[in-house]
Amino acid sequence: MSNCCPAVKAGWGFAVAIVLLRVCVGFHFFKEGANKLQDPKPFSAMFFGGAKGPFASTFQAMVWDADGSDRFDADKVVAAWSQYVQTAKVHFKFDPEQVKLADDKLARREALLRDYLGARADDIDEYFKGLKRSAANRADPPRWQVASLRGQSEKIESELKAKRGPWLAEIDRQGKDLQRDIAEVATAEQRAAAGTLDVFKPGRRFLDSEAVDKIIPCFDATLGILLVLGLFTRPAAFVAAAFLTSVVASQWPGAYGAQPTYYQAVELCALLVLAAANAGRVAGLDTFIDLLCAKWCPLQLFKTAKAT
Hints:
This protein is an all-alpha fold. It has 15 helices and no strands.
C-alpha cells in the first residue's frame, strides 16, 4: 500500500502540499497554453531573438528569417507562393476553371511583390551592407567589452531592425492577401470540407520560431492537464522542467542584458520536486495505473501462475 501512496509514509500534510503544488503548477502550464491557443500571436521569435549568454547564437539561429534575407529575395518568396498555390489546388479540389483563376491570382500577387521590392532595391541593398558591418562588430569581442563601443553597436542593430520591420510586415501582408485570394477561389463547401491552408513562407526549417509558435501552446496545455490529473506525472514533470531549463539558458544568469528568470527557475525546482516525489501517486490517476500494472504486469502474472 505504501508503494502506491507515499502519503501513508509521509503523512497527510505532505499529501495536501504535494497535490496543491502539482495542481497549481499544472494549472499555470495549462493556462499559458490555452491563452496562446485562444489568441494565437507570434511569440517565440522575440524570445529566441532576445537570447543572451553562451547559448544565445543557438537560440537566435531558430528565428525564422530574422534578417529578412529570404523574404527580400523575390524569387524565393514567389517559389514558396507557387508551391502553396499548387498545394491549394489539390487541397481544395479545384476544378479547371478554379485552377486558372488561382494561377491568375498568383501572377497578380507576384507582380505586386516584385514591384514593391524593386522600388526599394537601393534601400534594401544599403540595409544588407549595414548587416555586414553589424556582423563584423559582433565578431570583434573588444567592442562588446567597452560600454561605449557596445552601445554604438547596439544602436546600429536597433536601427537595422527598425528599418526592415515595415518592409517585412508588408511582404507578410501580401502573403496573407494571397492566402485570402486562394480561399476566395474555393467555394464555401470546398472551404468547409478542406479547412484552412496557411500560405507557405520561404526559408522555413524543421524547428524554427514559426513551428515553435504552433507547438508550444499545445505542449503547455497538454503538460498542464497531465499534471493537474496526476497522469504520467513523473515524465510530464521532467519534460516541463527541461523546457523551463531552456528558458533559463536563453537568458543566462549574469550575462550582459539578460532578463531575470527567477520565476521560471522556481517553477523548474517545483517540477523537479514533483518528479522526485512521483506526485501523481498522491490523489492522482497514476495511482490507478500503478494498481493496474501491479495486477497485470507479466512478472506478477508469472508469480501468480507459479503459486497456483
